[in-house]
């Protein structure tokens, strides 16, 4: 029932930064745990970062720890992914996802997905 729309992707140089946004409609944003996943060209979708209801917990893939930060603003129905020190291996289609219960690190724990936003990091 929830509808998710991502934005903020684009081209960035190695070492640069981007901030992705995901706005949710259809239900109260505060009812969902949220996550970010990415799918590099020719590879499977993989977990990037997650955030619990009320931002009580955040968790990250090892590959992005210390570089990416997930946050949420429930009053704006929006979750963010701040990406710093970007590397070419971060190039992927990035998806926002919502979980009705608790989020996790696999795609099967999420119930709703956005359409994706492309992030490309050049050398």
Share of residues in strands:
over 45%
Morphology call: globular
Distance, first to last CA = 40 Å
Estimate percent helicity: under 10%
Q: How many DSSP E strands? A: 11
Major sheet summary line: 7 strands, mixed
> What is the residue-averaged pLDDT?
94
Question: What key attributes describe this structure?
Answer:
single chain, 123 residues, mainly beta, 7-stranded mixed β-sheet, 4-stranded antiparallel β-sheet, 11 strands, globular
Describe, in plain words, how this protein is organized in 3D.
With about 120 residues, the chain is mostly beta strands. It has no helices and 11 strands. Strands 2, 4, 5, 6, 9, 10 and 11 form a 7-stranded mixed beta sheet that branches. The radius of gyration is 13 Å and the shape is globular. About 35% of the residues are buried.
Helix-strand blueprint:
Blueprint: E1 3-7, E2 10-13, E3 18-25, E4 33-39, E5 46-51, E6 58-60, E7 68-73, E8 78-83, E9 92-99, E10 112-113, E11 117-122
Parallel strand pairs: 2-11
Antiparallel strand pairs: 1-3, 3-8, 4-5, 4-9, 5-6, 7-8, 9-10, 9-11
Quick structural gist:
By secondary structure, this protein is mostly beta strands.
């Amino acid at each position: 029932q929830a509808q998710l729309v991502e934005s903020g992707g684009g081209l960035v140089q190695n070492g640069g930064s981007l901030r992705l946004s995901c706005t949710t409609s259809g239900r109260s944003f505060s009812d969902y745990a949220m996550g970010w996943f990415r799918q590099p060209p020719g590879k499977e979708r993989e977990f990037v970062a997650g955030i619990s209801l009320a931002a009580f917990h955040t968790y990250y893939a090892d590959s992005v720890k210390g570089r990416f930060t997930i946050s949420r603003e429930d009053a704006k129905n929006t979750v963010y992914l701040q990406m710093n020190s970007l590397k070419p291996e971060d190039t992927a289609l990035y998806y926002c996802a919502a979980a009705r219960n608790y989020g996790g690190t696999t795609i099967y724990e999420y119930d709703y997905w956005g359409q994706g936003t492309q992030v490309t990091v050049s050398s």
